[in-house]
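Sequence, please.
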């Protein structure tokens, strides 16, 4: 093993999935020395997550890649409905349509872009900014906080084991990496609820869903209740169902898979629809819950699935991770440029853990909705089906969660209601293209000229501040908005702005 003499970096990210790539892209665009290592040879080739939320599309817009993601997303309105049926060949029992409420709050909208396509977009964008930013085929073996820096031991496929030092190390290496295990304190307790198996099929299922295209179709009538997940809307699909806790590929030979699929498709095992289908792969995974007890340990920071593992029901995991990257990027930029202090990372830890817990509760309730669907259908409970239908509506429309506020504990947690009234901790509405890697002072129409607010600040102002004057859509007085679009402070007194700028660099919400 070599001595710890490898080049030092501002930020070293372990894991180049969507969260790690988005973070590295944001940092490199801001001029921060950031690199990533990943044990794989490149972006994933598995669809994994599929729905990129409105909030995530806003981040991707600020990173300059939203158009590229849209271009690789599935065309049509697949993200706008959920369907419940007994079988694919049978009639729909429930069709729940989106109300489109999220479009009222953002110029962006969610898309169905599978994780493999999203990762390729992000990797290509990173390469244009810094071609050597991602070190593929380089696994991380250990990470240690050394006080003035953090150290990562890495093992490239084609070279010796080395140690790399960075001012900060971000663990974005998923639910089975260093960040999720005992290597770093505070990973949290993982609670496994059930096991699932996903069959990736190449099959001509498109005619069966053409009338009601949905990003997920719940199939409740057979002996194996399942979900049909769209990948390309043509011949690429995933059928997911409950598996035994110890199941493996050997437990699912082709004949058994065909019998299982026949119950959810609604045709005999010998039907040409199934005999001509090709099984592209079988993937086993857990429905599990975990939120880390500590998002930061010295100079080591957790993000994405390393910080929280959520069930796929609700499409929350990917998007929560991208929000982590957004919340972390501006803080690391602030620290790198000198206007933010180390307490910003503790602020990140408190904020993101609270949001992780909130999202985990929401995701757990979505799993319960699926259970209610299956139970109600099996027992002919029409009232239960009505309750499940109402709950599925929140599955589709949850701006209060997706775009939601950073409000303190005790505030209402209604995923269907978005708080964007300019109070501290709320989302600053409709000014997306004005945010980036610096704070924005938003002046309302009754706030007076900009000089009234800026002349009393220290020269030069320690915080890089942009000033934006608004008319009817602005706050009463002024609002200081963080680079990620959340209100840090609102007030009417220019004298209070100085204290708000100080607290923004230190961390915490200045009410």
């Amino acid at each position: 093993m070599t001595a710890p003499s490898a080049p030092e970096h501002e930020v070293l990210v372990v894991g180049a999935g969507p969260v790690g790539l988005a973070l590295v892209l944001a940092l490199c665009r801001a001029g921060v020395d950031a690199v990533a290592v990943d044990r794989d040879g490149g972006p994933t080739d598995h669809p994994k997550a599929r729905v990129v939320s409105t909030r995530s599309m806003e981040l991707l817009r600020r990173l300059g890649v939203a158009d590229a993601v849209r271009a690789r997303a599935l065309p049509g309105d697949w993200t706008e409905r959920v369907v419940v049926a007994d079988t694919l060949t049978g009639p729909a029992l429930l069709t729940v349509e989106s109300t489109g409420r999220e479009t009222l709050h953002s110029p962006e909208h969610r898309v169905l872009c599978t994780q493999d396509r999203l990762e390729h977009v992000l990797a290509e964008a990173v390469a244009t900014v810094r071609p050597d930013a991602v070190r593929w085929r380089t696994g991380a073996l250990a990470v240690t906080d050394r006080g003035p820096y953090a150290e990562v031991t890495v093992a490239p496929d084609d070279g010796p084991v080395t140690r790399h030092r960075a001012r900060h190390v971000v663990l974005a290496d998923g639910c089975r990496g260093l960040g999720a295990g005992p290597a770093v304190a505070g990973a949290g307790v993982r609670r496994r609820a059930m096991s699932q198996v996903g069959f990736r099929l190449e099959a001509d299922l498109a005619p069966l869903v053409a009338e009601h295209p949905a990003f997920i179709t719940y199939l409740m009538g057979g002996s194996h209740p399942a979900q049909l997940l769209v990948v390309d809307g043509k011949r690429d699909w995933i059928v997911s169902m409950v598996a035994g806790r110890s199941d493996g590929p050997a437990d699912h030979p082709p004949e058994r898979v065909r019998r299982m699929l026949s119950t959810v498709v609604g045709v005999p095992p010998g039907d040409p629809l199934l005999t001509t289908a090709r099984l592209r792969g079988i993937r086993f995974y857990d429905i599990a819950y975990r939120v880390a007890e500590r998002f930061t340990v010295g100079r080591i920071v957790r993000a994405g699935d390393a910080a929280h593992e959520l069930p796929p029901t609700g499409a929350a995991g990917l998007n929560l991770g991208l929000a982590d990257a957004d919340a972390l990027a501006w803080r690391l930029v602030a620290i790198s440029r000198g206007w933010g202090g180390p307490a910003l990372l503790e602020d990140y830890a408190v904020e993101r853990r609270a949001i992780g817990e909130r999202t985990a509760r929401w995701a757990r309730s979505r799993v319960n909705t699926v259970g209610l669907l299956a139970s109600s259908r099996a027992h002919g409970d029409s009232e239960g089906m009505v309750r499940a239908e109402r709950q599925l509506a929140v599955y589709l429309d949850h701006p209060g969660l997706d775009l939601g506020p950073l409000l303190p504990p005790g505030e209402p947690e209604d995923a269907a209601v978005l708080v964007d009234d300019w109070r501290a901790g709320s989302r600053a509405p409709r000014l997306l293209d004005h945010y980036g890697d610096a704070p924005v002072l938003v002046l309302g129409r009754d706030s007076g000229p900009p000089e009234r607010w800026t002349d009393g600040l220290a020269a030069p102002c320690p915080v890089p501040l942009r000033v934006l004057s608004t008319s009817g859509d602005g706050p009463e007085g002024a609002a200081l908005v963080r680079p990620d679009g959340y209100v840090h402070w609102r007030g009417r007194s220019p004298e209070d702005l100085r204290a708000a700028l100080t607290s923004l660099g230190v961390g915490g919400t200045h009410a």
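The chain has a mean pLDDT of 90.
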